[in-house]
Write a structure and sequence with these properties.
heterodimer; A: Rossmann fold; OB fold (Dihydrolipoamide Acetyltransferase, E2P); 6-stranded mixed β-sheet; 5-stranded antiparallel β-sheet; 8 helices; B: mainly alpha; MetI-like fold
Chain lengths: 342, 276
């Protein structure tokens, strides 16, 4: 069992507090993704779990024991770094074996584990090469291999795909998903890429400014964001926010909710006739991606929003389009607290 | 004159300056080697002789009448010993400074370096007396310790800068792998900074080899190095130019040859050590 419990964890640098009492429960075998804008503290939190960063307050326990003062190598965690952080002067084999050698593991056991990991990661042919002679994707697989051979209770990934090109990123993402399925080990994964978060996670933790904004499954976060920040952070293009004044008089879905923020995702706006329209706006720009088109709109009040349409609209730039949305796909947030209402 | 012509002219003038500087540096060494092959009379001839029949008589005389090899051996022992000791202290120190940089790290380094700005003669009395009390006058060990201390600030500063080039993540990875500090230095930091360590060692060896002040002051016969040996050729009757030149050539030759050989290793070392 390797559930991970984070209780009221605080991190300060001198007088500056950067993490404000994080509470989090991670079940054994869960794939958890920490996501948030840069500087939100997601990497710091991961590094505190790894033991690379001191904890200023609170407790981190893995498998029931508090790990605050335990050395990184004895926490039963293994980390995959963004920059791979391979040992450039060692062969791939030695890179993977290094941790086991330090732990004085018997040689035949080391050999067995390294070869097994190499097979899983398709690295068998590269074991005697130096990292320099490998491509970016292969290096990242070596870094993952180095984590696997230690048979950790928890895997930690710190933005592992951000140094890869787009095609490789998709491929490696799939490999990580397969790896999780195969090993069933708890994995914690830090990213700022919400596609990675949505596709990989059992549970997403959205962080902002050292606080947890929301914890939930990807679909929960998408369908019922707790606040305006999560609403805009999850989903691409991001959710449009409107005020009552942006809607056709008397048709605002938020009319009975005072001056609440009305949120509608671009993919939930539907083109319609003037008679059924909730709102109208002028076309400013079209991004046609073939599969769908993004219509950038500006209404009379000057509010800009995006509509995701099946195909490019028939009107020219400056032409008027009318939109409606299903009531159940409209979100409301308090304009003062930004929290979800109704 | 077009811009291109002007640029050409500037380049030529710059090249000319380069050559003048190179010749200014090289000429004394050239003249020393040349003089070492002259007889004493030819050496002081006016006008100076550029062409003459070379003789090895100075070299044979040195071989026969002095103990050159003993001095050379002392130089080798003190230079390598001093450098070894300096590295032994500097590598862990630079490691801790580079990877646990604190508020005062830079100041400590500057303070250490500032000791190099003091004239050595300023500490002549205390060091002489300490050596005397410890019975270490005319001992190689005293020179090794002094050479190590003398080069420590500069060795540390250079290593500090080399170590800082190593990506922090690699050290963090080794911490995750459970490497002890000793193993981390030996198996991760040192191989990665190998080129830097080698070139720092080479610099330190050269500085030790060329050191004359302490060698002359603290040694008499047993532990004297080549620099003291050269100085001993100063006779009351005046200098024997040809012989002094021969001795100086013999004192310079080993380190020049060593440096030249090591340079090739260094280039290899530098590319091997490349982190990315």
């Amino acid at each position: 069992m390797a559930n991970l419990k984070i209780e009221n964890v605080v991190k300060s640098y001198g007088n500056v507090q950067v993490m404000h009492g994080i509470d989090l429960d991670i079940e054994d075998g869960e794939f958890v993704v920490f996501v948030g804008p840069s500087g939100c503290g997601k990497s710091t939190l991961l590094r505190m779990i790894a033991g690379l960063e001191d904890i200023s307050g609170g407790d981190i326990s893995i498998g029931g024991s508090v790990m605050n003062e335990v050395a990184p190598s004895k926490r039963g965690v293994a980390m995959v770094f963004q920059t791979y952080a391979l040992y450039p002067h060692m062969t791939v084999y030695k890179n993977m074996a290094f941790g086991l050698i330090q732990a004085k593991t018997p040689e035949d056991e080391i050999d067995r584990r390294v070869r097994q990991a190499a097979e899983v990661l398709h690295l068998t042919d590269y074991l005697e090469r130096s990292p320099r002679a490998l491509s970016g994707g292969q290096r990242q697989r070596v870094a993952i291999g180095r984590a696997i051979v230690r048979e950790p209770q928890v895997f930690l990934f710190d933005e592992p795909l951000s140094n890869l090109d787009a095609a490789l990123r998709v491929q490696t993402r799939l490999e990580i998903a397969r790896l999780h399925e195969r090993l069933g080990t708890t994995m914690i994964y830090v990213t700022h890429d919400q596609v990675e978060a949505m596709t990989l996670a059992d549970k997403i933790v959205v962080l902002r400014d050292g606080r947890v904004e929301q914890v939930g499954s990807p679909i929960e976060l998408y369908e019922r964001p707790q606040n305006a920040f999560v609403a805009q952070f999850i989903g691409s293009p991001k959710m449009n926010f409107f005020g009552n004044a942006d809607f056709v008089a008397g048709r605002s879905p938020g009319a009975d909710k005072g001056d609440a923020i009305v949120g509608i995702r671009p993919e939930h706006l539907e083109e319609c006739g003037e008679g059924d329209a909730l709102m109208s706006a002028k076309l400013d720009l079209v991004e046609n991606l073939g599969e769908y088109a993004l219509a950038h709109m500006v209404n009379d009040a000057g509010t800009e929003f995006i509509a995701k349409l099946d195909k490019a609209p028939s009107v020219a730039k400056g032409g008027t389009l009318y939109f409606t949305a299903k009531p159940e796909l409209v979100h409301f947030f308090d304009s003062a607290t930004n929290q979800r209402i109704g | 004159m077009t811009d291109k012509q002007r640029q050409n002219l500037i380049n030529r003038v710059a090249v000319a300056f380069g050559w003048i500087a190179a010749i200014l540096f090289f000429f004394p060494i050239f003249w020393m080697v040349l003089t070492s092959f002259k007889t004493e009379n030819q050496a002081i001839a006016i006008p100076p002789l550029l062409f003459f029949e070379p003789t090895l008589e100075n070299y044979t005389e040195i071989q026969e009448r002095t103990n050159y090899s003993k001095f050379a051996l002392n130089s080798i022992i003190t230079a390598f010993g001093g450098t070894g000791l300096a590295l032994l202290i500097a590598i862990p120190s630079a490691y801790s400074m580079a990877f646990n940089t604190g508020r005062w790290t830079k100041d400590i380094l500057m303070w250490m370096l500032s000791t190099k700005m003091l004239p050595a003669v300023g500490v002549l009395m205390p060091i002489y007396l300490i050596s005397q009390k410890l019975g270490m006058l005319d001992s190689k060990l005293a020179l090794v310790i002094i050479y190590a201390m003398m080069n420590l600030p500069i060795v540390m500063l250079i290593l500090f800068n080399y170590f800082r080039e190593i990506p922090k993540e690699i050290l963090e990875a080794s911490r995750m792998d459970g490497t002890s500090t000793f193993n981390e230095i030996r198996q991760v930091v040192m191989p990665l900074a190998w080129g830097g360590i080698a070139s720092t060692a080479l610099l330190s060896i050269i500085l030790c080899w060329n050191e004359a002040f302490w060698s002359i002051v603290l040694t008499t016969t047993e532990a004297s190095t080549l620099t003291a040996f050269v100085a001993s050729f100063q006779a009351p009757e005046g200098l024997f130019w040809a012989k002094v030149s021969a001795v100086s050539t013999l004192a310079c030759a080993p380190i020049v040859i060593f440096g030249w050989l090591a340079q090739k290793q260094l280039v290899q070392g530098l590319t091997f050590g490349a982190v990315k």
